[in-house]
Amino acid sequence: MKSKDFLAGWEQVDITPEEPVCLCGQFHARISEGIKDPITATVVFFESKTDEKTSIAVMISCDLVAIPEEFRKAIVKKATRLIPDLREEEIIISATHTHTAPEVGEDILRGTRGMTIKDIYGVELPVMKISNYIDFASTKIAGGIKSAWEKRGKSGIGYGQGFAVVGFNRRVAYYDGHAKMYGNTSDKNFSHIEGYEDHTLNIMCTFDPDKKLTGLVINISCPSQVDEQLFLISADFWHQVRQEIKRRLGNEIFVLGQCSAAGDISPHVLLCKQTHQRMLRLSERDERQDIAIRIADGLLRILPDIEKEINYQPEFDMTHKKIFLSPYKVEQQDIKEFSEEAKKFYKQYLLLKKEIEENPEKKRQARWYVDITSNFRRYRWYNACIERAKKISKNPKIPVDIYVLRIGDIVFAPNPFELYLDYGIRIKAQSAATQTFIVQLAGGGTYLPTQRAVKGRSYGAIGPSCLVGPEGGKEFVEKTLEMINNLWSEK
User: Fold this and answer.
1) Are 448 and 468 in contact (CB under 8 A)?
2) How distant, in Å, are the alpha carbons of 157, 306, 315, 410 from that of 312?
3) For labelling, which of 100, 197, 292, 303 has a CA lying 20 to 30 Å from the CA of 188?
4) Contact yes or no for 30/227 (Cβ under 8 A)
5) Model confidence at 491: pLDDT above 60
């Protein structure tokens, strides 16, 4: 319904822990050894008033690897206490997928629903409790939601699409039919890069009544993981993006980063790496700085055109559904293979555990925990897949929460997956909206691979990596499009 008054409010809060934490994103544990740059949560609070009703939607982007359910619930519980009229289904929380931020709860793929470090890594580590970090970060984010709500004022929106090369397909295919994430392209058996890449830069801006820019939603098809192996807390390239945009447009501008469909995408250049590294050296920039400049250049190129059309009374509607998707099919031969792998890693974990117990001085060595935690996590990863396969006959469908938010002629379509790019492309191609913003990682972040990726196998496209498979992916696209297109056909 067309807004009589459209309001928007922004806030950004620092969610950087003040003590060491376990960093999420790799199999092995990484105890943070310092802070490279702060991690934040950016909030935009929308309110649309008509003669009939008031509608609300909150979008939050966090510099985290994913949004597990207990973390989401903690934010929702605190935010709805602070703002009684706010409802759970009006809050959309997504992650930028930095691999250098704290653990925030359950990991379904690795069979860990517990909240302790030992549950997840198999050993005790001298770090902040996960439950304590969840309490700290959720309190800060809920406070940010309230602050954005208090700051909301009459606003308009503008939008547009540009281009910025940030993400590259990371699955390398070989002549024998197999594929590998981050495979070697100089191998004589290298055939091709498996999938497509999307370099579109989706932008939504908010403006005050004087047509002054107040905030930006920047949506790109790439996770924030240039420095994914660091033992330091970091927001990765989104930190540089925010700095670069504020340098050019002013410190008062808010920047909310979103990761579009990018389960098979990363910022790592796989082809002609030497050429790329040479150009970075000549430019005297690192990868993160270069990405920030590419995004800022793309934004500044289209911003003058975006400012030509500002809608102060946009159509505003939101819908939420719980849908049920077909699971990833794990074959019996796969279960046998995964069982053998699980036993192998568990055996190695027990050997390392015994060695440490008999030689406790090993804990004084730097990063003593890397090998033992890697083996434990890989064991749990394979074993969790086997357990899921056993339960499929009893629970043949996977429940998934889907949100669709319409603002004017654009639509935001969040999902909880590391969604392979093809699915996002299908939704954008058939969406009734003028511009469609796919938002992945609005949830736990399990991979949803394509059929060709499943044929190529490898991490990210095999049973232990996935809850939902290609059949469910097709269902997901159809259900999302139905929800999007209904918001237009109903009007």
Assistant:
1) yes
2) 7, 14, 10, 14
3) 197
4) no
5) no
- Evaluate whether 1 touches 317 at the Cβ level (below 8 Å): yes
Report residue 111's pLDDT band, with 50, 70 and 90 as the boundaries.
low
Burial class (CB in 10 A: 0-12, 13-18, 19+), 484: buried
User: Residue 311 is encoded by which pair of tokens?
Assistant: 């809608």
- Alpha carbons 251 and 46: distance in angstroms, whole number: 22
Q: What integer pLDDT is reported at residue 51 of this predicted model?
A: 80
Provide CB contacts within 8 A for 482, sequence distance 6+.
none
Residues 204/217, Cβ–Cβ less than 8 Å: yes
- Rounded distance, CA 199 to CA 221, Å? 7
Predicted confidence (pLDDT) per residue in 187-213, tens digit: 999 999 999 999 999 999 999 999 999
* Contact between residue 39 and residue 104 where contact means Cβ atoms under 8 Å apart: no
**Residue 427 dihedral angles phi and psi, to the nearest 5°:** -65, -45
Tokens of 366: 């730097």
Q: How many CB atoms lie within 10 A of CB 483?
A: 18
Amino acid of residue 66 = A
Which region, left, alpha or beta, applies to residue 477 given φ > 0 means left and ψ of -120 to 50 means alpha?
alpha
Q: Whole-angstrom Cα distance, residue 196 to residue 260?
A: 14
On average, the pLDDT of the chain sits at: 95
Q: Is 102 in contact with 23 (CB distance < 8 Å)?
A: yes
- Paired residues of 324 in beta bridges: 399
Give the helix ranges, DSSP H, for 307-420. Answer: 332-358, 370-391
Helix axes 332-358 and 370-391, enclosed angle (nearest 10)? 150
pLDDT in tens, 235-264: 999 999 999 999 999 999 999 999 999 999
Domain ranges of the chain: 5-170+194-318+401-458+468-489, 332-383
> Of 6, 133, 11, 128, which is closest to residue 61 (Cα–Cα)?
11
Q: Which of 170, 234, 153 is nearest to 449 (CA)?
A: 170
